[in-house]
What we know:
Order of helices and strands of chain A: EHHEHHEHHEHHEHHEHHEHEHHHH
Order of helices and strands of chain C: EHHHHHH
Mean pLDDT of chain A: 93
Number of strands of chain A: 8
Largest interface: B-C, 20 and 21 residues
Distance between the termini of chain A: 48 Å
Mean pLDDT of chain C: 93
Number of strands of chain C: 1
Number of helices of chain A: 17
Shape of chain A: globular
Oligomer: heterotrimer
CATH architecture of the largest domain in chain A: 3-Layer(aba) Sandwich
Amino acid sequence: MRRSSWQDYQKEIADDKYYYARSCIRQNFFPGSEKAFLDIIRNDLGRDVKDDPLHTSCTGIGYHADVVPFETIMTVVARQFALMGEAGYENFISSCITSFGIYTEILNTWEEFPETEERTREYLYKATGRELVKPRTLAHTSDIVFHFRDSIAGKMRRPLINVYTGRPLRVVEHIGCHYAKIFPKSGIGGSEFPYVLAGMIESWGGEVVDYPERRHCCGFGFRNYLVQANRGYSIANSQKKLESMAPYRPDFIVANCPGCAMFLDKWQYAIAEMEGTIYGADGHGIPVLTYEEMAGLVLGYDPWQLGMQMHQVDVEPLLDKMGVEYDPAAKYLGQDGKYIGKPERTVVNDGCQGSIYDMKR
Amino acid sequence: MKPKVVIAGGGAAGMAVALRLERLGVEPVIVEREERLGGKVRGWHKLFPTFTPAAEVLDPLVAQIGRRGIECRTGAAVEALSEHGVKLASGQTIEADAVVVATGFTLFDARRKEEYGYGIYDNVVTSADLERMMNEGAVRLADGSTPRRIALLHCVGSRDEKVCQRHCSKVCCITGVKQAIELKKMFPEADVFNFYMDIRMFGAGYEELYREAQQSYNIHFVRGRISEASPMINGRIQIKAEDTLTGRPLRMSIDMLVLLAGMRANDDNAALAASAGLALAPNGFMQSADPFLGAVRSPRRGIFYAGAVTAPKSLADTLAEASLTADAVMDYLNSVQR
Amino acid sequence: MSGLRFGYGINRPRAIDIDSNDLRKSNEILREMPELQTCIGCGSCTASCTAGNLTEFNFRRVHTLVRRGEYRSAYEEMNKCMLCGKCRLVCPRGINTRGVAMLIKRKLGDF
């Protein structure tokens, strides 16, 4: 795909010394991804990143679900920045797209309405005694991996190539809405043709699939999926995307947002159970990866160390295509070697309706 | 000795002013940035609302300029001006008794509306591209086939704060109607859709042509702005819009998307204005002395305007205005000679 | 098929999908009455409509939907028309709106 416009949207990405803010939900759904990011940045790339146990949730889910007021979230964010300053860092990186959107929005708010920054500074001081320090650079962690994509390519153990056919793997990239739709200039490549994940895929030998609903939201939307009555249109958004991408027969989906990766993965299960529709090849769902997992596989990490046994859609067909050597018996052994339990059979992985009744029993 | 007037811009406006001034006993000098006279009209195929070939209007103008021996400096851009003449980018100056600014407009760069994928997806073209294709005698898709469904999108780079173009470009509505009819004549089996926000049929014969497009050519008009265009696996383009008159989202696949690119102010208007102490309108076009009684005068005596340099205008309006400009120049020359 | 129930369904798209709509009836209607295509959406018909002022009936919306290939319930909707003729009196494009109502009923009785 020609993406002539991506070079117009660039931003400064620091080369070293990052202060890392984690996501609230990723460690449940993609539990190895944040660890993989830290390992890659520290061990493979030799960079300094501070993983600070003092920082909290940015309260973004509460903010977007109308339970946390803007003043509050600005103060919480100011505290994260203050912690960064206290730790001696100035490059703030966020693992979560929602948080990244919130940090971007708040920094822009302070820029446009300096009185809000002054008020927040005061609240922060009164509440915690801390001093607000604004970051010199703000980036999403996918920006950091993008920044090092060529260094990673240099250390690549398994390119994004189908070992059976020798052809590039076909990859659907999905960008979280709050990465660049609110502030297009905050994203590599802007909002219409973001290049942050596409750049990684291309650098590592894969082929990016452009499909009609590429820019469509996954349907996460906070208050929308949080309320059971609203989930019907939340899931319908993911379904719309899956239906649109399926004819291209993608080998996997990669997302840079915690919610999107979760939704595109878990909704495939729900749709398969509810309607029997499966979007991947051979009666199997389309595996959904985080970009850290994708980078980890490319760098030769063990898929179970990356936490890929926690995916709803099994990743084995992809691992086989990439020529990843893995121990099937080790899939459900935890870090300490103890059996962690195994999910029931599902339509999305087995492609048979019988499993529905297995589950009901 | 004849008074001398420098005309910046050798498009329709500049040529028409030059011809009129020459008749009135003035020595006009045309300074044109391009290597040839003609401006934007030179790339056009047929003119609304009559489908007159653009060459039928332009060629006589160019021919008369030659016949009357009017001096033309082509390949020369005006960098600065005053009522006493202009300075060219080459550093050369041309002295004169008055100056007419007829530098026209710039076609909006449709790539800036990224959501339509112009320059990225095949078969997304601009209205100007379509005219060029018609001039070359071949409107077809990138793979050489003929389109079965075509959409024309109005207001690309007009009435759009996202690209800092708040103004209406005035001529795109009727161009959309004209091009839809031309496409339907070329491809009678094709479905042709116009996506519009408002249809502004301000000129003589425009509304009638709009009605004809609907009734005689079965061209569909959907009130709603296309929100994005994306590629499909079969090579077509998927578009989304709201059909605002039914209150429902609408989507369809098409073979060709024509973006009716708007008219925007020239980037060098600001520098020209600064060099002569002129004013810019908020949309970046040159500000006339008065919208009613001084439309072709600048706020500075001795500097005049003609054509789309002050606002988007049709060719008919531009040619009519040229005479007014020449008239105003003559008044000025007579007043200073006296 | 009936699969697992999670307490919610999957919403169907609301978009008018021109690709999947069968435009044959719509094309027939426009061929018989090309003037319908000249509607400029002014709403005079609906504003003056006897039925539309007392029921959900919206003549302009229904015939626009028909032109997009959305026929469902168009016949029933047109049955609300009292054929009073006021809409035809006010239409600035001179469309035989009463005729449109009759034509839609004739063509779309099966939808």
